[in-house]
Each structure stands twice: as structure tokens, then as C-alpha cells.
């Protein structure tokens, strides 16, 4: 390394000012750089998992030199704000007033062109590193460029390198010679503090993404207002500052909830609160998976692996996945897990289950977060966990951090983890898969999301629930996780082999496993398949345990395919009349529980209304007939979901009779057991999911006893498990107009045909499941035939839509890790894409609607009676958390297109305009006349909120 010049540090250059004591000098930049470097070193030692440290070291070709890698990570964090020695110093008049005369006299061309400090840092980094002695040899030139990219990306967006970055004309924009010398002096202070690091000969993009995540996290932690104000008042000599920063780092990380907690691993039944013993699937994971994971050759680096678990609904896949996490984390050095599901409702339910699992294993101090767009409304967080906490002072705007009963009270996250973009950083997190998919979309801070995921075991439930667009995103994420050696668990009851094969190959491609290219990966059903990331070697559940699992869950499901007509002219085939006949034994006979699953909310509302009118005078109460769909206000939907799952769950109390009318919200992860399931025709995989709610707990009850000792009704015992499919396509019918494009016509037609050809009109579960899924949903040869134009048209539309969705996904998603040469490729779209602009689901453009009531005097209230006026902010303009939560809890997600041309008259009150969430709401003001709310015309439809039916749109 070349000799380095020594220059006196000028502490008038400031790093933080906003929110600090105006009577004191701003917080010096050099101290903020040292704080960040110290925090990065602490995070390396304590927050990163051993797998993350190994992955970064391998990406620098320094697998055997962890201390050298540690010092380099500290240097990157310490240089992150070096670009603030630029025009940034003049962005606040008060702070500018503290600058030294020498700097003021040598401003160069500062002000001629506005250069953001992160971009300025990237431009200045090569010269700064040369002054430290780097970049003069070809061996370190690539690493210099990579460090510059990391410095430029510390606010979450990577920039395209500028070939003119080091030209004298460009340097003049960053100030004169005095400014350049101060950049060198500040960098030298960091360089010496972290132990004089050396640059490597290699610095892969994948490793750089993780280092950027560490830099961002370190910066955020030491940029908290309370920390900075305390440091500002007690600066002390610069010589001892770095040591104090190192000592303070643990307290900051612990306050933030980032310190990992080791579980007290308990036995299977105790850990997962299971009566009796684990089933064969769960036992096979506990007994056989460790051998597969531990089969690596001595001395070979752990590269991860992917586990696919396939089993029918109700087979305990969630507990099997958590047990697999125990095995995989131990084998690959990850710490904690991300448990991701398709919907907010299923995430909320799983969060409570995971909280119990962790609490029973002594992890009460660990961070467990719920992560989805409306997670803060969950009862997992109390109101006083959500009041505003200390702010993180970052220069792209103030990030308002927020402080974040039973097991959930023990496991609620620290307040810091409730801040924007942070929940995935918790050691344990449960949420929607969308939160993870944003890591592979070109949005700000995708590097931070990648850091959060790369140290955990990654679990995806209901892997079948994603359309072709989301499968592209999921596949790309698995590719990155494969590169990081992250163990992955995929779970599904109805996943086509073609899809699982593509996902597994994406993971192996990321891991660099060339042996997978000519192979095909198929999992037994039920059971599991484990694929090693290094060799693509496969291990499957043993035949004995697979057969035992199949026997435990074996059930012959009777499928009655009934032709129906939608509308009032169907006669005996009228859909509602058919449902009434099916319900009659429950209402008039020996009782029982029936689940009716409708394809649209409108169908569900019409079905509920019909049954209520027919049976109200025969003693059918409101608790006997219930409706559940996604168009209820959030607080109402949550209460209804809990009522439904409690009544039809494993432990009861099971009602004597109940009819549940629902939509697709019951397909995934809701624990329901019905004596009879009636369903509108849907794609076969979804019908099987719905059928999974039929006699779901029969095997368990046979061994453990039934809730309240109540047996199934006589009519159900005679028929056995039964799925009735209301099929409008039978006998030449068509897809009902009111279904719209809910499901592809091709899949509906193929499902109808497959059901009509079932031997004995019976599905043997689990034996027939995979073959049926493959027949309808699997890859197949060309189906275009001139002699069958209708089917050919359906097939072409279905294939075309899938190709279009995959094309959109491929255009948006970031490149595979080995395809990234420069980090700006992770933000390849024009402009600065923020997360609210990112589409993790196609066609999911929605808004949140608040239904209120306009009283005769014009007052808007939350209730029909007019007693609950709309909450307003206080005199200081601030909102009480309880009021915001109350309002948001009454909102309903609806399609944005419904309000095309109507948004202006549906705007929220003016006083809400400054609130980031309330200002985005649409408000439906329903006039109250003679004590009754009246419909509102929106577009060509009438809309109103009905207490029983939810939001009605006709």
C-alpha cells in the first residue's frame, strides 16, 4: 500500500443536525462515520448469522479470513456518508454557520449543480480510496468500484457508475482542495479505527448487496434521534470516540430487538402443543431429514438446500415446516425464520401459532414481527405499542419509527422493528410473501430486505396459491437465496410438479449447482423431497413413513357434480334452490355443519340472503347461519373469522348446526371442519383446497375424542366425506356472467371434465390428488385442435395470459445474482421506484374504502345513529394512535377501478389530508333517511354497507 498523507480533521463538517439541540454545534460528520463503522463491526459479530458471514467472505474470495472481511465491512459503513463533504453542508443554514473559514473560502463549484450526498459519495470514493493507497493495482481496482457502489447505495438505491466521476471538473462540484483533503482525512480516521483493512481481489455483486444491507442497518441504528442528542451533549475527545461507539453498539441493537435469542428446543409435541404424538409426516422430518442435511463431505462448505413438503390440507404441514427449520438452521448456520403466506388473514392466524411455538421454547425476548401492509392493525400489537418513538434521522426524509395478548404479548416486537421496512429484520417474522418478493423488485432498500432474508430459514406456505407473475418473482427470489445458501421450505397441498420443478431449479441455479440442468425433481405425495444445493442429490421420505402418512389421512371423498343455473329461470336446477335442498337436513333434520364456498362476494351475499329468508321462520338463528368474505370492514372480518374458526376448529365448541357461506377466504390455512362442503365450480386445485375443509379432523378426533363428545349427524355418517360441486358447465352451460374473469375458462372446463370422469365419482385422498392436479394444471402438449374450436380458444387464452404474466414478471424482476455486473442493475427501472409503486401481484390495484353515514344535518359519523363522529387530529395536528387504528380498522379493500371518475367526491375530510394513511382513503358517505342508510350511486352501480352482508355493490 502506498504512503498515506496525514491531514488534520475539521470537525466543523457536520453529519447530523435536524432534530438536535439548536444551541449546540451539529453532530460532526467524522463521529457519525465512526459510529456507523463501530455498529457495522458489532452487527458482523452479533447480528449476522454464521451463514451470512461465510457467504460474504466467499464473495470476496476470503473464506478463511473472516477478520479481514470484518474490517472491510466496517470500512464500507464508515465511508457511507463521505459524500456529505460536498454541497450537502449548505442544505441547512444553521449548520452551515458552523463551517470553518478554510472550507468556506474553498467552495469550488459547489452550488453549480445539485448532487445528492449518496451520489456524491460514490463519485468521491475512488479518489478517497486511492488516497488510502487502494486502486493503484489491477488487483484491487474492481473492489474500489464495488465499495463506491456500496457508498452510493446506502440510501437504498444503487446508481449507474459515471466514467467521469473522477474528472477534475466533476471533483470541483464537490468543493475545492480543502474539501478533498477533508474527505481523505475523514476516510483515514475510519480506516485506522477499523484496523487498516485491505481490499480483496474479488467482490461479487451478491456479497456487495449484503454488505450494503449491513451499512444501511448500521446507519439507521446510529441515526436515532435519542442517541444523537445524547452524543451531541457529550462529545468528548475524538480519540476515544470510536471505543465508546463500540461499547454503545450493543445497547442500541438490544433496544432495537436485533439481538438473537437461542431457543430452548423442546420435544415435538411440547414445542408445537400437540396432543398425542406427531404424525408420520412430522416424524419423518424429525428423524430422516437430519441425515440428508448432514450428508455433506467433511470440510465442504454448507451451501443450503431446498425442502418441498406435499400433503393434504390438515396434515400438519406447518408444524412439519417448523421442525424442518430446526434441522436446517442447525445444518446451515441460519438463525430464525421467515414464515410467509399468501394473505393477510392467514398471516394473522399463523402469527399467533408461531408466537406460541416460540414462547414454549423460551424465546420470550426474541423479536417476532407480523409483516404485511396492515399488520399494525392486528391485535398482536396493543395501542401503546404503536405510539411514536424516537425518529431515525436520515437525509432522504425522516423515518418515523413506531413502538411496536397471551403468547402474543410475550412475543410482541421491540418498537424499532415496527418502523418502515424493518419487520423482516426480526429474528422471527410471519407475514405475506409480498414482503419478501419486494427484495427482487427494483425498489429502494431491496438490499436491506435481502440482508434480512439471507440469515434465516425461508418458509413459504401455500406455494400453489401464486399466479404465473408471482411465480416468476418467487423463482427469482429463490435464485438469490440459493446464492446465499439459505435453506428453503416450500409447502403445498396442490402444487403441479412442473411448477415445483421450476422453483427448485431456480434455487439450484442460484447456488451454482450445474448438476440440476438436465434433471427433473418430483416429490412424492404425500411426503417430502429434499435437494442438496451443492450436488442436487435428492432425498425423499422413506416408503414406510410415506405409506403410514397416507394411511393416517386416507379418505374417500365423494364428489357430487350437480348441474346448476345461475338466475331465476333455472327451476329445479336453480343454484340457490339446489343449495337450499342440501341445507334442509341440517335445518330440519339432525343438524350438522355445512360450508358453502362461493366464487364471488355477490354470490355469497345472494346465497346467505336466500337461506336466511327460507329458514328464518324455522328457527335458524344468526349464529346458525354466518357469512364470511373480504368485503367486511377489517374489525368485523377479524371477529367473524375468529367466530367461524372457533366453532368449526379442532377443539370446538362445535355447534349443533351451522351453515357458513364464504368466498375463497376459507381456502387457505383456515382450520375448519365441515360435515359437508358445497362449492361453486373452481379450478381443480382450489376445489381440493376447499374439500380439505371436509372431515378435516376426523382422524384426530378418532384418537383424541370429539369436541363436547358430539358425533357427526346421521346423514353425514351415511354419505361420508362429501363435496358437492355446483357446475354451470354441465349439459352445455357456460361460465356465469357475474363470475367475470375470476378463473380462466379453460381451467373451469378442464375441471368439469375431470370430475365427470372420476371413477365411482370419488377422489381417493391422498392417492388421487397429484394425478388430478397434473391433469388439469400440469404442463401438457399443445391442445389447439381445429375440430374443437371452443376448447382451442379457451386453451389459447389461458396459455397467452400465463405467458403475458411471466413476461411482465421477467421485465420487472432484478437479474439473477450471477448476472449482476454492476449494482445499479438492481434498480434498472427509470425513476426512483418506491415500495408502494411495486406490484407483487398483477391486477391487484386496490384502495381502502371507509363507509360512513351522512346525517340529515350533513354531519359524517361512523354509526347510523349519529353518536360516533369522525375522529379528528388534535390541536397540534397529531393523531391519537387509537383513532387512526379505529378508522383503518373499519376500512375495506376494494378495486380501484370501481371509483374511476368518482374519486373527487369520495375524498376524505380536509383535516385528514396530512396523514400518510388516512389521506389515501376513499370515503363512501351514505345518506341517513328515517334512521336508515341509503345506497350511494358509484359509476353505474349502487353501493352500501350492510350490517349482515358487508359491502354490497349492485
Automatic annotation (TrEMBL):
- Which sequence ranges form a coiled-coil region, renumbered to this chain? none
Keyword line: Antiviral defense, ATP-binding, Helicase, Hydrolase, Metal-binding, Nuclease, Nucleotide-binding
* Gene3D superfamilies found in the cross-reference section: 1.10.3210.30, P-loop containing nucleotide triphosphate hydrolases
Superkingdom of this protein's organism: Bacteria
Record's InterPro entries? Cas3-like_dom (IPR054712), Cas3_C (IPR041372), CRISPR-assoc_Cas3_HD (IPR006483), CRISPR-assoc_Cas3_HD_sf (IPR038257), DEAD_box_RNA_helicases (IPR050547), Helicase_C-like (IPR001650), Helicase_Cas3_CRISPR-ass_core (IPR006474), P-loop_NTPase (IPR027417)
Where does the HD Cas3-type domain start and stop, copy by copy? 22-221
Pfam families from the UniProt entry: Cas3-like_C_2, Cas3_C, Cas3_HD
Family per similarity comment? In the central section; belongs to the CRISPR-associated helicase Cas3 family.
Q: Which NCBIfam families match?
A: cas3_core
Protein name in UniProt: CRISPR-associated helicase Cas3
Query: Which organism does this record belong to?
Result: Streptomyces silvisoli
Query: What high-level taxonomic lineage is stated for the organism?
Result: Bacteria, Bacillati, Actinomycetota, Actinomycetes, Kitasatosporales
Amino acid at each position: 500500500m502506498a504512503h498515506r498523507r496525514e491531514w488534520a480533521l475539521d470537525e466543523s463538517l457536520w453529519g447530523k443536525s435536524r432534530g438536535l439541540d439548536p444551541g449546540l454545534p451539529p453532530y460532526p460528520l467524522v463521529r457519525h462515520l465512526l459510529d456507523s463503522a463501530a455498529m457495522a463491526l458489532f452487527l458482523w459479530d452479533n447480528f449476522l448469522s454464521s451463514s451470512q458471514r461465510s457467504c460474504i467472505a466467499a464473495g470476496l474470495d476470503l473464506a478463511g479470513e473472516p477478520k479481514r472481511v470484518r474490517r472491510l465491512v466496517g470500512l464500507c459503513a464508515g465511508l457511507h456518508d463521505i459524500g456529505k463533504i460536498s454541497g450537502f453542508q449548505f442544505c441547512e443554514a444553521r449548520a452551515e454557520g458552523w463551517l470553518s473559514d478554510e472550507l468556506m473560502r474553498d467552495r469550488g463549484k459547489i452550488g453549480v449543480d445539485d448532487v445528492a450526498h449518496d451520489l456524491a459519495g460514490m463519485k468521491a470514493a475512488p479518489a478517497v480510496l486511492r488516497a488510502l493507497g487502494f486502486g493503484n493495482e489491477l488487483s484491487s481496482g474492481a473492489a474500489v468500484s464495488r465499495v463506491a457502489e456500496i457508498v452510493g447505495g446506502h440510501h437504498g438505491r444503487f446508481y449507474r457508475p459515471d466514467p467521469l466521476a473522477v474528472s477534475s471538473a466533476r471533483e470541483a462540484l464537490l468543493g475545492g482542495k480543502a474539501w478533498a483533503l477533508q474527505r481523505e482525512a475523514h476516510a483515514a480516521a475510519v480506516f485506522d479505527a477499523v484496523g487498516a483493512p485491505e481490499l480483496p481481489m474479488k467482490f461479487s455483486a451478491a456479497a456487495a448487496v449484503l454488505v450494503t444491507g449491513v451499512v444501511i442497518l448500521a446507519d439507521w441504528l446510529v441515526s436515532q434521534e435519542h442517541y444523537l442528542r445524547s452524543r451531541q451533549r457529550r462529545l468528548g475527545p475524538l480519540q476515544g470516540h470510536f471505543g465508546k461507539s463500540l461499547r454503545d453498539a450493543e445497547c442500541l441493537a438490544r433496544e432495537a430487538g436485533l439481538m438473537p435469542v437461542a431457543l430452548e428446543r423442546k420435544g415435538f409435541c411440547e414445542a408445537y402443543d400437540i396432543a398425542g404424538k406427531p404424525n408420520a409426516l412430522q416424524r419423518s422430518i424429525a428423524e430422516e431429514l437430519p441425515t440428508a442435511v448432514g450428508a455433506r463431505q467433511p470440510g465442504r462448505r454448507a451451501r443450503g438446500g431446498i425442502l418441498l413438503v406435499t400433503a393434504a390440507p390438515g396434515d400438519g404441514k406447518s408444524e412439519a415446516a417448523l421442525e424442518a427449520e430446526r434441522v436446517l438452521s442447525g445444518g446451515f448456520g441460519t438463525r430464525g425464520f421467515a414464515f410467509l403466506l399468501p394473505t393477510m388473514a392467514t398471516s394473522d392466524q399463523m402469527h399467533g401459532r408461531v408466537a406460541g411455538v416460540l414462547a414454549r421454547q423460551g424465546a420470550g425476548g426474541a423479536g417476532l414481527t407480523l409483516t404485511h401492509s396492515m399488520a399494525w392493525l392486528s391485535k398482536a400489537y396493543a395501542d401503546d405499542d404503536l405510539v411514536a418513538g424516537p425518529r431515525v434521522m436520515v437525509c432522504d426524509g425522516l423515518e418515523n419509527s413506531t413502538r411496536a395478548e397471551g403468547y402474543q404479548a410475550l412475543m410482541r416486537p421491540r418498537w424499532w422493528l415496527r418502523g418502515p421496512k424493518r419487520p423482516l429484520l426480526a429474528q422471527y417474522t410471519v407475514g405475506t410473501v409480498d414482503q419478501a418478493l419486494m427484495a427482487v423488485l427494483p425498489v429502494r432498500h431491496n438490499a436491506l430486505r435481502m440482508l434480512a432474508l439471507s440469515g434465516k430459514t425461508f418458509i413459504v406456505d401455500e406455494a400453489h396459491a401464486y399466479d404465473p407473475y408471482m411465480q416468476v418473482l418467487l423463482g427469482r427470489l429463490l435464485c438469490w437465496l440459493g446464492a446465499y445458501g439459505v435453506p428453503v421450505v416450500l409447502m403445498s397441498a396442490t402444487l403441479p410438479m412442473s411448477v415445483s420443478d421450476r422453483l427448485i431449479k431456480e434455487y439450484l441455479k442460484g447456488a451454482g449447482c450445474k448438476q440440476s440442468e438436465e434433471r427433473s425433481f418430483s416429490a412424492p405425495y404425500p411426503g417430502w423431497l429434499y435437494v442438496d444445493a451443492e450436488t442436487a442429490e435428492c432425498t425423499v421420505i422413506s416408503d414406510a413413513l410415506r405409506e403410514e402418512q397416507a394411511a393416517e389421512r386416507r379418505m374417500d371423498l365423494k364428489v357430487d357434480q350437480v348441474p346448476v343455473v345461475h338466475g331465476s329461470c333455472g327451476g329445479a336446477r336453480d343454484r340457490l334452490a339446489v343449495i337450499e335442498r342440501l341445507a334442509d337436513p341440517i335445518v330440519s333434520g339432525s343438524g350438522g355443519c355445512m360450508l358453502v364456498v362461493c366464487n364471488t362476494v355477490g354470490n355469497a351475499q345472494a346465497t346467505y340472503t336466500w337461506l336466511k329468508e327460507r329458514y328464518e321462520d324455522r328457527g335458524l338463528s344468526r349464529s346458525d347461519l354466518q357469512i364470511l368474505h373480504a368485503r367486511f370492514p377489517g374489525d368485523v372480518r377479524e371477529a367473524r373469522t375468529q367466530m367461524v374458526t372457533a366453532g368449526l376448529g379442532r377443539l370446538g365448541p362445535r355447534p349443533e348446526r351451522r351453515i357458513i357461506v364464504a368466498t375463497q377466504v376459507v381456502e387457505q390455512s383456515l382450520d375448519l371442519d365441515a360435515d359437508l362442503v358445497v362449492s361453486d365450480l373452481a379450478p381443480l386445485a382450489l376445489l381440493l383446497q376447499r374439500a380439505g375443509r371436509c372431515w378435516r379432523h376426523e382422524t384426530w378426533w378418532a384418537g383424541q375424542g370429539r369436541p363436547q363428545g358430539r358425533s357427526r349427524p346421521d346423514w353425514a355418517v351415511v354419505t361420508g366425506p362429501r363435496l358437492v360441486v355446483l357446475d354451470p358447465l354441465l349439459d352445455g352451460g357456460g361460465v356465469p356472467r357475474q363470475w367475470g374473469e375470476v378463473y380462466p375458462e379453460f381451467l373451469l372446463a378442464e375441471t368439469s371434465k375431470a370430475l365427470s370422469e372420476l371413477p365411482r365419482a370419488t377422489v381417493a385422498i391422498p392417492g388421487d390428488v397429484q394425478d388430478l392436479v397434473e391433469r388439469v394444471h400440469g404442463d401438457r402438449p399443445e391442445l389447439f385442435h381445429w375440430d374443437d374450436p371452443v376448447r382451442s380458444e379457451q386453451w389459447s387464452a389461458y396459455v397467452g395470459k400465463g405467458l403475458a404474466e411471466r413476461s411482465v414478471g421477467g421485465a420487472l424482476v432484478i437479474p439473477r445474482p450471477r448476472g449482476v455486473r454492476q449494482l445499479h442493475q438492481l434498480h434498472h427501472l427509470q425513476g426512483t421506484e418506491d415500495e408502494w409503486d411495486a406490484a407483487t401481484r398483477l391486477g391487484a390495484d386496490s384502495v381502502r374504502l371507509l363507509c360512513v353515514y351522512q346525517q340529515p344535518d350533513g354531519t359524517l359519523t361512523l354509526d347510523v345513529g349519529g353518536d360516533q363522529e369522525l375522529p379528528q387530529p388534535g390541536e397540534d395536528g397529531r393523531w391519537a394512535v387509537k383513532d387512526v387504528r379505529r378508522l383503518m380498522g373499519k376500512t375495506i379493500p376494494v378495486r380501484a377501478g370501481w371509483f374511476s371518475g368518482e374519486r373527487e367526491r369520495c375524498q376524505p375530510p380536509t383535516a385528514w389530508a396530512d396523514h400518510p394513511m388516512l389521506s389515501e382513503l376513499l370515503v363512501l358517505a351514505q345518506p341517513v333517511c328515517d334512521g336508515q342508510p341509503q345506497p350511494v350511486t358509484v359509476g353505474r352501480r349502487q353501493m352500501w354497507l350492510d350490517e349482515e352482508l358487508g359491502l354490497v355493490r349492485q
